[in-house]
Write a structure and sequence with these properties.
The structure is a homodimer of 309-residue chains. By secondary structure, chain A is α/β, with parallel strands linked by helices. In chain A, 38% of the residues lie in helices and 19% in strands.
Amino acid sequence: VGLDVGGTTVKAGLVARDGTVLLSRARPTPPAGRLEEIERTIAELLRELDDHDGAGTVGAGLPGVVDHARGVVRHSPNVEAFTGWEARDRLSDIARRPVVVDNDANCAAVAEGWVGAAAGVDDFLMVTLGTGVGGGVVLGGHLWHGEAGRAGELGHVTVDPQGAPCGCGSRGCLETVASATGIARMARECGREGDAESLARAARSGDPAAARLFERAGSALGIAVAAWLDVMDVHTVVVGGGMAAALDLMEPALRDEIALRAYALHPDDAIVRRAAVTPTPGVVGAARLAMLEESRLLARRQDGPGSTG
Amino acid sequence: VGLDVGGTTVKAGLVARDGTVLLSRARPTPPAGRLEEIERTIAELLRELDDHDGAGTVGAGLPGVVDHARGVVRHSPNVEAFTGWEARDRLSDIARRPVVVDNDANCAAVAEGWVGAAAGVDDFLMVTLGTGVGGGVVLGGHLWHGEAGRAGELGHVTVDPQGAPCGCGSRGCLETVASATGIARMARECGREGDAESLARAARSGDPAAARLFERAGSALGIAVAAWLDVMDVHTVVVGGGMAAALDLMEPALRDEIALRAYALHPDDAIVRRAAVTPTPGVVGAARLAMLEESRLLARRQDGPGSTG
């Protein structure tokens, strides 16, 4: 079972061992953002899935900085109520079974590495372009969490030191440009209305000002990806999230910046792929993390009672 | 035995198992930059050290992008003659013993992780601020090379998309600001003369314009380090190279940028340390790589003749 607990929707799904989503459910996240109500919603979703399954570990993808080892949300700027949420223990009480939690973009990365655009690739960077920008780092086939679960926060990499203020307190973050919010903001600054989706449609029907917004987003993403390529020299980058539907509009500028800025790398060696796990990569990845955790628990049990694990 | 083959000097040293440099020699790199002359210089240096030792693997740090697995310099913009140099095999012929090669900044990182500022730290970023800016990534106690040996090229991370042109063809690279060359360039643009060393002295004697140059370098380094912290969430950063002597002049601005730009990280959690292995970190690190290679060869031999290694 995989859960994707977002700011607007809570999704849950039963995922088979081959990555197929057998059954999925979604509910709006309670608008008050109160934890008890969110937990109640999750409990209801799990009961609906339990009619069909009923056992096994649950994996949950959560927004913000997640300390996966302690099972706690350390920092959640978009859903303030989540900050400090001891999600693993609370959900484990609710579900009456083991729970693993991780950042939602990390879950998407796991899904892509399992059955998606990076299947069979040991090392890659996942970027999720949505309302904000998230990401996940996979090295040697495993999620790289960093020292405090912050790894993969590509959205707050500076792409223009003098750029627009970001919700995080900094300025010129990738997220201020290459997100749905960033596109809408830049549009407003040019006296345009509309959200990223309508602007993408306008760009596709030949509106040059709208097209320019996606070029700017692509350039910003290219600057951040080039920095990744220079420091980590890991060539595969998977782009997911709602804005990935407009990757074609961003890609020429993205590739130009990589060609200009990635040091001593032939531009063809950078492999930028659109995410392939839809529509619920977070659910699929969270379920995969649950399966991996089950295997670990099983292996530990088979070591016998004398083992210290 | 460790070698550090630079654009201006070739250094060689006998290094003990505890990291002490027992004996060291240096020669100017032949100015023509012709490989045969450089190889001859290396041969002479090795003979001088051989009078004292005479056995064991040789490690060599080389400038540019080094494919350590194949033992070849893939790209060396500053010492053009090195590009394509099959350094491992050539040096192995010269020294008549096994040779391992790696990038010079990677060697410095190994030295710092072994007996320097990051001793006992499993994960850290090394940045070398010299004529240019290099770096090395250590994860899980091992050098992270990336897919083509390019990992750690922090010098070409964009810190200002509209910034000064860089020798690499891009613009606004960290190296254009936070290097000895960058400091001298910025000084010239303000109508000042002098190299990084004299400008550092001026800054220390209260010259505000000179101080401002190092602040700009510190800011640029802070932007690049904050990106690293966001994406990898590895908190220890070791700053080496000749310019590290001016780290105190850069550090306030460096810390301000980290505080502003590193997402959801308490600024105190970022650990910026000055490199501690002097004066020949490249030699010490290269020697360490040679020791590690020897251990590997020994372990393989002990597996017996039937083993495939």
